[in-house]
Design brief:
Layout: H1 2-12, E1 17-21, H2 24-32, E2 36-39, H3 48-61, E3 65-68, H4 74-84, E4 88-93, H5 103-111, E5 115-118, H6 121-130, E6 138-140, H7 154-161, E7 168-173, H8 182-189, E8 196-201, H9 207-216, E9 223-227, H10 233-238, E10 241-244, H11 253-260, E11 265-268, H12 273-277, E12 287-290, H13 294-305, H14 308-325, H15 328-340, E13 351-354
Parallel strand pairs: 1-2, 1-13, 3-4, 3-13, 4-5, 5-6, 7-8, 7-10, 8-9, 10-11, 11-12
Helix pairs in contact: 3-4, 8-13, 11-14
Length: about 350
């Protein structure tokens, strides 16, 4: 979805963009955003015929840039781009686990990829250490999120979502999958006072297991599953802080949405978190980094949740951090510099992205 957001934003600046993807749900979401989309399958590493089909498509459409947003498909996509003589092949690295861990990826990055864009600078630095010969082709461009729209008073926002009033409320926005470690987040709630509740927005295959875990932990009535929320603004207006308990991230979109709304963030030490939440010199931090164990997460929550003055300072710092680093205009300037060598340059007849 991050790649779809990027393409929609580029289209708003006058770029002609096309998304190639192999999942119907992604294609439908992109089309709903006004992004031209086609279903296109790339198989495993040995599916050279798929790379040839992609090369023929690229040769016919003649894009100025091909962005590859799925690291596992970089080998075939890069082969296709070289065969089609695409002028600029860009690999977008969105997860800290997407590393040049074997010869295949190192070869492609050294020989075929023109630029590598990271959503967090810690990821760029790890690549520069692993492949110092390509350091000049590595760029960090922070993800951006669009403003969430009109605000609601906290009481009205909670009423709209059926959430309890008169309690301290933590929020989580994520797919219900193992990587997000919502089991760990639930276990941290056990160490908090009974007046602390948790609202979880999102769907996924672990919904049933997480519901059972809530019952086993004795948290029934304190954890509220909201399902998928098309508009996340009411949740952000409802919560006192957002909590991230993931094992790995790139730059969490939920974290950026919270910052844009002035909501303090408490996060495990995953890629991008320190860059987003570090305090400015002499100023308040927009969030807090914790350890990964449930008691450590709970301790971080307790540090800020009962200090109204600190929460207010962190909320104001969150909004400042969003404006300084995570605005759409800043992100698009960065991508256009990668495409054309300078911010604000528009001129590609076609830009393609592969997800």
């Amino acid at each position: 979805m991050a790649l779809t957001d990027l393409l929609a934003a580029l289209a708003s600046r006058g770029h002609d963009v096309t998304l190639l993807c192999n999942r119907v749900v992604v294609a439908e979401a992109a089309q709903a955003r006004g992004v031209e989309t086609r279903l296109f399958r790339l198989g495993g590493d040995l599916a050279i015929h798929d790379a040839i089909r992609l090369a023929l498509t690229l040769r016919r459409e003649k894009p100025d840039v091909l962005i590859v947003g799925t690291f596992r498909k970089l080998w075939l996509a890069a082969l296709a781009a070289r065969l089609a003589r695409v002028p600029n092949l860009v690999a977008r690295i969105g997860l800290s686990s997407d590393t040049p861990r074997n010869f295949k990826y190192r070869f492609v990055l050294r020989r075929w990829v023109d630029n590598v864009v990271f959503v967090a600078d810690t990821m760029r630095k790890s690549y520069a250490e692993a492949l110092p010969e390509i350091a000049g082709r590595l760029t960090t461009i922070y993800k951006a999120v669009a403003p969430l729209g009109p605000r609601l008073p906290q009481e009205a926002a909670r009423r709209a979502l059926g959430l309890p009033r008169g309690v301290l409320l933590l929020g989580s926005v994520s797919r219900l999958v193992s990587q997000k470690r919502l089991d760990r987040l639930l276990e941290s709630i056990v160490f908090l006072h009974e007046d602390v509740h948790l609202a979880i927005a999102g769907e996924g295959p672990l919904r049933g297991a997480l519901g059972q875990h809530v019952r086993q932990l004795g948290l029934y009535g304190r954890v509220h599953f909201l399902g998928y929320q098309e508009n996340i603004a009411p949740l952000m207006d409802s919560v006192d802080a957002l909590v991230i308990a993931s094992d790995r991230e790139g730059m969490s979109g939920a974290m950026l949405e919270a910052l844009s709304r002035g909501v303090p963030v408490i996060s495990t030490d995953v890629s991008g978190a320190r860059e987003a939440l570090a305090p400015p010199e002499g100023g308040a931090a927009p969030g807090l980094i914790t350890g990964f164990a449930p008691p450590q997460i709970a301790s971080g929550v307790n540090t800020v949740l009962y200090d109204t003055e600190l929460l207010g300072e962190m909320g104001r710092a969150a909004e400042r951090r969003y404006k300084e680093l995570f605005s759409y205009e800043r992100m698009l300037d960065g991508w256009e510099a990668v495409f054309y060598g300078g911010p604000g340059a528009v001129g590609a007849e076609t830009g393609s992205a592969l997800s």
